[in-house]
Amino acid sequence: DTEVTQTPKHLVMGMTNKKSLKCEQHMGHRAMYWYKQKAKKPPELMFVYSYEKLSINESVPSRFSPECPNSSLLNLHLHALQPEDSALYLCASSLRRTSGSFNTGELFFGEGSRLTVL
Amino acid sequence: SQELEQSPQSLIVQEGKNLTINCTSSKTLYGLYWYKQKYGEGLIFLMMLQKGGEEKSHEKITAKLDEKKQQSSLHITASQPSHAGIYLCGAELHRDKLIFGTGTRLQVFP
Fold this sequence. Notes:
The structure holds two protein chains of two kinds. Chain A is mostly beta strands. Chain A has no helices and eleven strands. In chain A, strand 7 and strand 8 form a beta hairpin. The radius of gyration of chain A is 14 Å and the shape is globular. In chain B, strands 2, 4, 5, 9, 10 and 11 form a six-stranded mixed sheet that branches. In chain B, strands 1-3-8-7-6 form a five-stranded antiparallel sheet, with no helix packed on it. Classes of the chains: A mainly beta, B mainly beta.
C-alpha cells in the first residue's frame, strides 16, 4: 500500500464552523506533513510531525490545529476560519531517515482536501 | 523573494518537441526533488538528485543537478499530452523543511 488517503475531498464550511481534515497512511512512514496550496501557487509547508511529535509549525494561525493520534493518522482541526483560508490542503508522509538532517527523502502526497470557507 | 525560482513560469509546446525547465537556488541544494501535479490534485514524485553533477532519467524525463548544486534542470524529450501539468522542484533549504519552487505550467498540444 503506497497511498496517502485524505478525507474529505471537498469541504465547505462557514466561518463559525468546526471541522476536521483527515489523512491516513499505512506505509510505516514516521514523518507526516500538512501543506496549504492556493490557486496557481506552490504548496506551502504548514506543519511537520516526526515520530508523532510536532516538530515544525510554520507560524500557522491557531485556528488551524494539527493532531497526530498515531503513526498512521494525521488530522487538521479547523475552527473560526476566514474566507482567505480557502485552499487545497495537502497531506504527505515520508520515511524519515535521520531526524534533524537534510534529505527527507521522497514525500508521498494525498490527493488533497479542497476547502471553501464562506 | 522565492528561495527556489523556476523558469519558465509557463510553457506551451507542440507534441513531439523537447523542452527544459530550470530550478535555481541561492543556497546549496542538499537534495533536489522534482514533482508533477495535475490541476487540483496531489503531487507525484518524479526524481531526487543529491550529488553535484548527478543525472537521472525515467522514461522521457531527465533531471540534472549542476556541479555547484545550486541549479537543476528537467528535460522532457518528445513531449506528449500526458506530460502536461505543473512541474515543481523542491528542496530542503532548511533542515526538515521541504519547500517548493515557483512552479512551471506545461501545456502540450497535438
